[in-house]
Amino acid sequence: LLALHGLQPSMSGKGNAYDNAVSESWMSTFKAELVEESDWHTHAEARRDIFEYIETWYNTVRLHSSLGYKSPAEYEAQAARTPRAA
Hints:
It is a single chain. 45% of the residues lie in helices and 0% in strands. It contains three helices and no strands.
């Protein structure tokens, strides 16, 4: 199915745990900072809180060690201001 759509699977050799390291880190943080502390009663409540967590905290305020202790928004803004080498 991937080949049909011109996509290549992202997989490394056996025992290489780095393929999903970023995703695993995100899910761990998401669970610890939001999910485990929440008691949603409706799908709408969950959607609202998840959106708020991602857009008003995780992407704009929370510092990420992998980004030099900047928020993703700050990191992207800095990258946009930095001229690229030719």
